[in-house]
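Deliverable D4.2, example record:
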Amino acid sequence: MAPSGGFADSDGDGVGDLPGALAHLDHLAWLGVDAVWFNPCFASPFKDAGYDVSDYLRIAPRYGTNEDMVAFVDACRERGIRVVLDLVAGHTSVEHEWFPVLGRDAGRRPLHLVGPARAQLRALLWPAPGLLPA
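Output generated by the structure prediction step:
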């Protein structure tokens, strides 16, 4: 289950959200659901389906608030339901705070490979032409 599309849309904006999902928990527990998995739900400009995270410490406003997530997790715990959050830490948005510091501090190891460095790494790791898209 994920708060995406129109499922569990509590505010009528066409996007499923945490308060809407919370309203369905009793039904999910009755069905015997023991885990709920959310697709990326952290703050993001959503240029890559939410995987382009701009803030790993904040729930995307379209899904609710951090407090909504805490309430959802607490309610799940009361029903014996586990919560799994889809977190791919290697995927970040150019709007993330890490990007402005790239290349500014020569003493720090780069947090991301972009531009020519990325192309060189791809050539090293994936030498077979056509194996992966550019």
